[in-house]
Amino acid sequence: MTVIKTRALALLALGLLRCAPEIASSVTVFAAASTTNALTEIATGFTKISQIPVRTSFASSSTLAKQIAEGAPADIYISANPKWMDYLVEKRRVLKENRFALLGNRLVLIAPKVSTAHVTIALDSNLAAVLGQDKLAMGDPDHVPAGTYGKQALESLGLWVALAPQVARAWDVRACLALVERAEAPLGIVYATDAAVSDKVRIVSEFPAATHSAITYPAALVATPPSPESHVFIKYLKGVDARAVFEKYGFKVL
């Protein structure tokens, strides 16, 4: 059986094959760094079923959004917060009707695995005392969603003004995770899903949901117009197989 026939049958099985003379060679997904492990596994599963390769690019949501706005050839965009999806809607690179809420997450404080640090996340938090003169690793609050949520949480707790000068601003949440893994920072703020994929850090405490905006990952087809294969991958993302993978890595599927 030819490759094109195999792909066509897979697309038919997924219920989204359109009348087209050829099947596209791949689907390109730009996604928030925090989805790296889950989405890589999902893409592999999708390709096994459909024979359609999935190309992935992982970075800060802001970096990817700006690349798409400048014409980068993405078929699908998954952001770690609505702000950067709104940005692409404003730039007319994403259509409102093509976006949807895909995932939720939680915000946590982490330390190196060997650390004995104990921090109470509350208005009378001892975070500053535990940190001392050391750095607090965070995604850059000016553009990295995890950092934005982290700043909101620290502001809610009345800690941001005092701690801001000690923040080590990482270019994305995985870079923040790496700083703590290497013990270059004794504490860091990441998503619960990032902490879960590392055996070099431990969760010290979780930030109450009320201290920051709801962590929501919107996904969307990028207006190009979308290929039939992109629609198929979106459907797969919403399906039971992808849900199981996302949940395995600690995401809440919306």
List strands and helices in order, with pairings.
Elements: H1 3-13, E1 27-32, H2 36-50, E2 54-59, H3 61-69, E3 76-78, H4 82-90, E4 94-104, E5 107-112, H5 127-131, E6 136-139, H6 145-156, H7 160-163, E7 167-170, H8 173-181, E8 187-191, H9 192-196, E9 201-206, E10 216-222, H10 228-237, H11 240-248, E11 252-253
Parallel strand pairs: 1-2, 1-3, 6-7, 6-8
Antiparallel strand pairs: 3-10, 4-10, 4-11, 5-8, 5-9
Helix pairs in contact: 2-11, 3-4
Shape: globular
Q: Numbering strands along the chain, what is their spatial order in the largest sheet?
A: 2-1-3-10-4-11
Poorly predicted ranges: 1-6, 16-22
CATH topology of the largest domain, by name, is D-Maltodextrin-Binding Protein, domain 2
The CATH homologous superfamily of the largest domain is called Periplasmic binding protein-like II
Helix content: 25-40%
Order of helices and strands: HEHEHEHEEHEHHEHEHEEHHE
| Number of discrete domains | 2
Class inferred from helices and paired strands: alpha/beta
Give average pLDDT, whole number. Answer: 91
Distance between the termini: 38 Å
> Strand count, sense and closure of the main sheet?
6 strands, mixed
CATH class of the largest domain: Alpha Beta
Strand content: 15-25%
Number of helices: 11
Nearest-angstrom radius of gyration? 20 Å
The name of the CATH architecture of the largest domain is 3-Layer(aba) Sandwich
Overall number of strands: 11
Describe this structure in words.
This protein has eleven helices and eleven strands. The longest helix is centred in the first third of the chain and has 15 residues, at 36-50. α2 (36-50) links the parallel β1 (27-32) and β2. α2 (36-50) packs antiparallel against α11 and α3 runs parallel beside α4. It has two domains: 3-104 and 216-253, D-Maltodextrin-Binding Protein, domain 2; 107-211, 3-Layer(aba) Sandwich (D-Maltodextrin-Binding Protein, domain 2), CATH 3.40.190.10. The strands form two sheets. It has a six-stranded mixed beta sheet with strand order 2-1-3-10-4-11. By secondary structure, it is an alpha/beta fold.
